Amino acid sequence: MSPPAIVLADLPLGAHAVVLGIDAPPELAQRLEALGFLPETPVTCRRRAPLGDPRIYEVRGTQLCLRRSEAARIVVRAR
Amino acid sequence: MTSVAAANAPVRLGLIGSPNSGKTTLFNALTGLRARVGNYPGVTVERREGDAQVDGARLRVIDLPGVYSLAPLSPDEAVVARVLEGRVAEVPPPDGLVLTVDATSLERGLLLVAEVLRLERPVCLVLTMVDELRARGGRIDFAKLEDALGVPVVGVVGHRGVGLGELRRLLPHPERWSRPPLLPPAAPRERDAWLASVLARVLEARPGPSRTTEAIDRVVLHPVAGTLLFASVMVLFFQLIFAWATPAMDALDTGVGALGETLRATLPAGLPTDFLVDGVVAGVGSVIVFLPQIVLLFTLLSLLEDLGYMARAAFVVDRLMGRIGLEGRAFVALLSSYACAVPGIMATRTIPSPRQRLVTILVSPLMTCSARLPVYALLIGAFVPPVTVAGFLGLQGLVLLGLYVLGGSAALVAASLLSGRLGRGDALPFYLELPSYRVPPARLVVSQVWGAARAFLRRAGTIILAVSMVLWVLLHFPRVDAPPGPEGARQALEASAAGRIGHALEPAIAPLGFDWKIGVGLVASLAAREVIVATLAQIYAASEPGGASLRDAIRSDVDPRTGRPVFTPATVAALLVFFVFALQCTSTLAVMRRETNSWRWPAFAFGYLLALAWGASFVTHRIVHALTS
């Protein structure tokens, strides 16, 4: 049984996941895709800031910092 | 047909790439340090072009703003889209597009490649940082990539010149570049499949994480160590622009003063000499005195940015800045404004979101800059008794601290109010790429510092110089026959246009407890805040400006109509509060004009801060008056 879909913002620190899709208005969705969050892309939560937010994700060979508000738009499945 | 024109007109090349893709390094490597910097019409986006010669062919390289996508969300990105479509009047569409992609993140960069290929223009793909790719164990098959995309692909290490020879041979002939036989698909699903198939063919080995970057980040991004490091870097940064610039600024000040004295001694005494010395030379001095801070600030900023630390600092402090609607990078600009709003406003260039940049620019004059210190020192020294509170805290120091806190908290409140109001129409989400740590090539740092200094001198310096000359005229005309000495100088000042403006201002500033003399000081302080000290000294015919005699003079000044002291505690408090808020600084206005490319925002900032200053001074005057009488 595969794990349930969650949003990237809820991915535990250090955990790996695969992007399922983006649940956001078209402009934001397009930008998040341009940053590499395309379907089936592996993503890892690498670090979080001292106050918990934002967090750093590794995606498509880059280290990207997103706030909770944006990371909550990206639907993933943990691996 | 066009052969004659083609022989003379340079080949126009548009440089496109995402932020951190090595685009600017490549631009510098191709064009040297001879970039022309301006603005695109109607927007605040910086426009950079440079020329290069290859085998007798002239190239004009247009460094387009860094973008992740051609679908624009911000004005920077809109400019790129408009230039590529040939919709910017002064910038004809480029003959060829040079697309830079960081070889270590080809997996992400290939998305932009697909978008650019779909423009159906001649495209040349430059993979940058191929040395880093190799060091991290990554391998890309260039021949297969050329084959898959259908366009020429060159690998470079921009700052070392690797691959530049091959690239230079290609650049003069965009019409000969191979074109893709088939464009990448537009529909998302097919495009994703295309990306995956290209990557599977050309990416022989995916680069591993950079060990150096990982090791440094374990400390720099550590919740405790990273926060401590951030605090130390900021303290050091502040210390450097605040303290290290001072000797150079003092030296420039002394030099300009000495030049003025030499001119005065050599030239015949009279009005033209006075104008030359006090208007022109002093005006030039008031411009170049900012240069040490600007050079120092931009050296530090571009080092922090290009080393890769700025993005980490923004990450550490983002949550705090997020509460006032800004992002981490705004912190550095606001901190710089404690030294001086001029470099602080220029530091906002590191903020990608135009809306946040504007908010930061508008609140930066509220940070207590060093020009306010002489004013605070005079008033606190004259009117706050040097007693200690709670056994060890000096009251004078506490008042000074209170003024800093007042300005800083006002900036935070203003920022959160403004970002709420100006928020509409900017869909840019917050994201920040953490680049690998790299030692920036010296040339990159030099070009950024030089660009900033030149922009300041050209765009802001001319305005500052003009205003200081106008102020000189206002302070010296019309002239009256006055006896020589301090008393004559006082009479001449009262009769001057500035003196009359001071009198005319009296009804507006009387509710704050200010008389016409303070009014003249406020007019003169438009040149720079601390000028009010020298002007008050002149009004009070003080023999030693800034010395004890001025302090005594303002302490014992009595209003001839009421017989009460002019500087009551209420008036002093109101004046201090006025200086906390008011934007009476032409240099700040000029640099705001330069950075926002319009007079609208400096006018808005001047207006809202004047209203704030007046209101706060009025309330302060009332409260202190009620408490002390």
How is this structure best described in words?
- Chain A has a 6-stranded antiparallel β-sheet with strand order 1-6-2-3-4-5.
- Chain A has helices at 26-34, 68-71; strands spanning 5-7, 16-22, 42-48, 55-59, 62-66, 74-78.
- Chain A is of the alpha+beta class and 79 residues long.
- The model of chain A has no long low-confidence stretch (mean pLDDT 92).
- The longest helix of chain A has 9 residues, at 26-34.
- Chain A has a single domain, classed as Ferrous iron transport protein A (FeoA) (SH3 type barrels, Roll).
- Chain A is built from 2 helices and 6 strands.
- With 629 residues, chain B is of the alpha/beta class.
- Chain B has 3 domains: 3-208, Rossmann fold; 209-367, no CATH class; 461-628, no CATH class.
- Chain B is 60% helix and 9% strand.
- Chain B has 27 helices and 12 strands.
- Chain B has helices spanning 3-8, 23-31, 75-84, 106-117, 130-135, 142-149, 164-170, 188-202, 211-220, 225-266, 271-288, 291-307, 309-322, 329-339, 341-347, 354-363, 373-383, 395-421, 442-476, 486-495, 497-509, 516-524, 531-539, 548-556, 569-581, 586-596, 600-628; strands at residues 11-17, 36-39, 46-54, 57-63, 96-102, 123-128, 139-140, 153-155, 203-205, 388-389, 393-394, 431-433.
- Chain B has a 7-stranded mixed β-sheet, sandwiched between helices. In chain B, strands 7-9 form a two-stranded antiparallel sheet. In chain B, strands 10-11 form a two-stranded antiparallel sheet.
- In chain B, strand 10 and strand 11 (393-394) form a beta hairpin.
- Residues 1-6 and 542-547 of chain B have low confidence and may be disordered.
- Strand 5 (62-66) of chain A pairs antiparallel with strand 12 of chain B, so a sheet runs across the interface.
| Beta-strand share of residues of chain B | 5-15%
Measured by residues with Cβ under 8 Å of the partner chain's Cβ, the largest interface is: A-B, 33 and 39 residues
The CATH superfamily of chain A is identified as Ferrous iron transport protein A (FeoA)
Tally of strands of chain B: 12
What's the overall geometry of chain B?
elongated
- CATH-wise, what's the superfamily of the largest domain in chain B? P-loop containing nucleotide triphosphate hydrolases
Between the first and last Cα atoms of chain A, what is the distance in angstroms? 12 Å
- What's the shape of chain A? globular
CATH classification, class level of chain A: Mainly Beta
Secondary structure class of chain B reads: alpha/beta
Based on secondary structure, the structural category of chain A is alpha+beta
The total of helices of chain A stands at 2
Strand order of the largest sheet of chain B: 2-3-4-1-5-6-8
Stretches with pLDDT under 50, minimum 5 residues of chain B: 1-6, 542-547
User: Largest sheet of chain B, described in full?
Assistant: 7 strands, mixed
What is the H/E string of chain A? Answer: EEHEEEHE
